[in-house]
Amino acid sequence: MWRVKSLDVVLATAEKKSLHRSLGPIQLTLLGIGGIIGTGIFVLTAEAAQKAGPGMMLSFIIAGTVSACAALCYAELASVVPVSGSAYTYSYTVLGELMAWLVGWALILEYAVAASAVSVGWSGYIVGLLANLPHPIVIPPELAAGPYAGGVVNLLAVFIALVITTLLVIGTRESANVNACLVAVKLVALGAFLWLALPVMKNGNFHPFLPNGWGSLGVIGAASSIFFGYVGFDAVSTAAEETKNPQRNLPIGLIASLSICTVIYLLVAAGAIGSYGAQPVLGAHGEVLEPGSMALQARCASLTSQPLVCSSEALAHVLRSIHHPLVGNLLGLAAGIALPTVILMMIYGQTRIFFVMARDGLLPEILSSVHPRFRTPHVVTWITGIAVAFGAAFLPVGQLADFSNSGTLFGFAVVALSVLVMRRTQPDRHRPFRAPLIWLFAPLSIAGCTLLFVFLPWQAQLRFLIWAGIGLVFYFSYGYRHSHVARGVTEVPELDKDAPPGPISG
Fold it and tell me: pLDDT grade, residue 241 (50/70/90)?
């Protein structure tokens, strides 16, 4: 189970592919921004405020710093191994099959559970937008949220997840130009928010700056949650086989997209805090209430004016509250238009990971079944889509984000470890991008990911451990015996020759 897949075989297999290399650094940067800017900033700003208050600006910096260290590690590995599979493939070639399996299994949390979280975030903006139309359309509370908020099922979240799944099954794909346009929609919406919010900031709204301190319900706890806002930059690495000069352009796309989004996040957080306030809502006896809990929902319902932390459409709510209802509605519309593309990227990324794992023999071959008409991997797409819809139907966005973060943090830490091991075991391997000070930044990435994992809610940690245990059962009952590496299969079948074009291929 510690067998390593030959890097030379991986690279030779990639060379056989017919994917068209058409993406340059600008398109990759836009792809990264499109994957990063989503529910994290549009929705989880409220979650961060409930934990850290104005101190959430420090939370964004902490999460961004950990992500930046991870991005340097990703950039080096992506330049050495410019193939599909992302962290799964990297770890397979360096740390061995068992670790690769655990990473691939954890990536299910990053992609599928993240898609559920974005679906719930999209639903919150659409519900708010419909309720604020000139002729309001009110979605019944029972169908607008899951049991965590006194509802029954989040019907709109289920709807968008299944629509995106259907589009992927029938072969609808997102081109680089469409992605660029939708990234522009999101950036214009956030630009409008900053234009209106920054000029009316008040210093008093930043005090107290750390109402809940630094702990699990404070700045570091908030950083663990809003780390979700940075997930997506690694989607750039999944486009390796469709990138021109990937050794140069992949690192540019990874680092540029992350840097741009960090600046945007800090400005948006400052605008929301300064213009409207972001103090946490406390219980009747002054206790700190858990974000997404029934107690917080009940407390919010008892308040005459809704603070930021009570909103499921945080940025639109701020604009409406500072007397810009039209722009607030337009921002909600922009989120409604643009967030489904993040869901598409997440579900597509999940199917690609499954596809690569099936290609290696670690998953049943049926997961690579191709629809006879649409020529898409319909079986794995439907399995993924139904799981995404189920999570979106019943769980709050914060819990979904934390669960997703647990898998992502594990994957990022393994990538950093892989860089260090490869530097030691393959020092002469050509590295078109050589990360600077890797013996500083890679350990910082591992330590930062570990710290953020420790400060996740215990429920998310427990679910991750249970999920990893289930994965080990799957591996030892199937993948261990069917692995192509174990069977000495070096000519990897091109199972994904019939896979759908990447969502960013033109």
Answer: low
